[in-house]
Amino acid sequence: MFLFYRFLIDLHGGPDSAWPAADALCNALQVINHLQDCADDYRNLDRVYLPGDWMAAEGAAVEDLALDAMPPGLQRVKDHCLDGVDALLRDARPLMPALRSRRLAWESAAILALAHSLSKRLRAGDPVATRIELSKPRAALTAGRGVLGELGRAWMMRPRTPTPGV
Fold first, then answer.
1. How many Cα neighbours within 13 Å face the side chain of 46?
2. Distance of CA 133 to CAs 37, 117, 118, Å?
3. In this structure, what CATH number is given to the domain that contains residue 146?
4. Model confidence over 14-46: pLDDT tens digits?
5. In 3D, which of 88, 160, 81 has the Cα closest to residue 127?
6. In a domain, 162, yes or no
7. Range of 148's domain?
């Protein structure tokens, strides 16, 4: 995913200095996806993408992913992962102002808003009991809010010419 986003930045004439923010967004999305799918990945693919050392420290076992609900130790591991996601999302904020393409900035703002919303829902929910996702209307509203926020930011940061006599 990193290379694809970097390719988009390069394709749209963006600077290499935008790469760290793009990488942070991609990393956050990857962790969110792993948390959303943690139970299904274990049950159907026998794969676990949660940090084993964190699980051991919290008294969580891989087999907890097969339960009907997340036990407290696994909940703490999830919360620790989401603390990292939230830090990555903060690191991703400089992405939109760094992009030269307004459309790519709008898309990135929508993705960032969706990631924030999913992080909040994952923190409040139990991805072992049920898949945490956004409904289509909620996703559209959240993405739209992200785009509007970016439009507002860009408008506030636009170059201004002084008005004579004012």
1. 0
2. 10, 9, 7
3. 1.10.600.10
4. 788 888 999 999 999 999 999 999 999 999 999
5. 81
6. no
7. 2-156
Residue 164 lies in a domain: no
How far apart CA 96 and CA 106 sit, in angstroms, is 8
Dist CA 81 CA 43 (whole Å): 20
Specify the higher pLDDT residue, 99 or 117. Answer: 117
| Contacts for 56 with CB less than 8 Å, ≥ 6 apart | none
For helices 19-36 and 2-11, angle between their N-to-C axes, nearest 10 degrees:
140
Considering its fold, how many domains does the chain have in total? Answer: 1
Q: Cα dist. 111→115, 138, 144 in Å?
A: 6, 13, 10
Q: Quick one: tokens of 96? A: 């939109």
Q: What contacts 13, CB < 8 A, 6 or more positions away?
A: 100, 101
Q: Which residue has the tokens 């274990």?
A: 42
Rounded CA Rg of the chain = 19
